[in-house]
Every structure is written in structure tokens, then in C-alpha cells.
Amino acid sequence: MNICVFCSASDLDERYTRPAREFAELIGKGGHTLVWGGCDSGLMKVMADGVQAAGGRLVGVSVEFLAHNARPGVDEMVITKDLTERKAQLLARADAIVMMVGGLGTLDEATEILELKKHGLHSKPVVLLNAAGFYDGLKQQFQRMEEEGFLSVPLTELVFFAEDGAGALAHFEEEAGIR
Questions:
Q1: Residue ranges, the chain, pLDDT below 70
Q2: How many domains does the structure of the chain reveal?
Q3: pTM for the whole thing?
Q4: Residue 27: which residues within 8 A CB-CB, separation 6 or more?
Q5: Domain limits at 29?
Q6: What integer pLDDT is reported at residue 177 of this predicted model?
Q7: Does a structural domain hold residue 55?
Q8: 3-state secondary structure string, the chain?
């Protein structure tokens, strides 16, 4: 499975890096491919290091103005002209999508992926990996949007909230009919 992971390129606290390392190991040991922003810093590096060390493949999709931060030694690296093209390439190469902790870029990616799914422009499973309760507030906001009629699709059809990587992979396998 090609698992696209959106996450921070910033160096983060252990409460976020530990779950990332655990998830990366599961991806690699499961024979899956990490499709990610291609950066060799922060949580992106943690994910790539873990997947590669556990035997998984790496497919990076960077953007011209960040290409100097692209990770060397990957299975495939794509450089796009802008962030819009980057998001399209990441989605096109993914079988499943995980949103890990991140800043404005990750939030932008999450909302775009969910908006596209809401409109039926993709049907890939999407998981928000809620490490250390990072997405509790966003989950509450999404629930409010649903309750007050702002979502035309039930929240459970748009996104699954997982507390750890094992929960995310279990959800993907269930969605794919793998038991």
C-alpha cells in the first residue's frame, strides 16, 4: 500500500516523534511505501528514517523552492513547481492518507484532502493520527460542523481519528477488506 503521510518538517518533542517512529516501523515492516513531502528534516525525516530502516520504500514529492531540503537516497523523488501541484501528486500516488501533527501546511493539506473527498473527487481512506491529543480541538470543530449542517457528508465517511499508527493501519486494512 502507498501510504501518504502529511506531517511537520519541524523538530518536535518526543511525544510526537515516538508515535511517528512507531508508525514508520509498521509501514516499513508491512512492506508499504511512504509517500511524503520528501523533506529530510523534522518529523518528515523521522518518518523516512523509520520506514527505510524497516525495509519500506520512500517516494518523496517536494517542491522547487524546498528542493534543497529534499532527502537523498530515496526510491523516487518528484520535484513539483508549486504547492498545489505537490498536493495533487501526493494524492495521486497514495492509496491511503494519514495526517500527522503539523503546522499550517499540514492543516492546509488536511482540509484540501477532506474537501476533495467530500465532493467525491477521491475515495481514499483518510486518518488523522491524533498523537498526544494534538487533533482533539480539530475533531471537536469537525463534529460541530457536522452537527450544525456544514458537512454534506457524514464525518465518519470523511475521516477516521486514530490514536496510534496501529489504529491507522487497521482502519486502512478494514477499508480495503483485508482482515
A1: 177-179
A2: 1
A3: 0.93
A4: 3, 33, 34, 50, 51, 54, 56, 165, 169
A5: 2-174
A6: 66
A7: yes
A8: CEEEEECCCCCCCHHHHHHHHHHHHHHHHCCCEEEECCECCHHHHHHHHHHHHCCCEEEEEEEHHHHHHECCCCCEEEEECCHHHHHHHHHHCCCEEEECCCCHHHHHHHHHHHHHHHCCCCCCCEEEECHHHCCHHHHHHHHHHHHCCCCCCCHHHHCEEECCHHHHHHHHHHHHCCC
Question: pLDDT value at position 179?
Answer: 41
Distance between CA atoms of 47 and 39, rounded to whole angstroms? 10
Residue 88, domain member (yes or no): yes
**CATH number of the CATH domain containing 88:** 3.40.50.450
Angle at 83 between CA 78 and CA 87, to 5 degrees: 70
523534522: which residue's cell? 42
In a domain, 179, yes or no: no
Residue 150 domain-assigned (yes or no)? yes
pLDDT digit string (tens) for 118-165? 999 999 999 999 999 999 999 999 999 999 999 999 999 999 999 999
How far is it, in rounded angstroms, from Cα 168 to Cα 131? 11
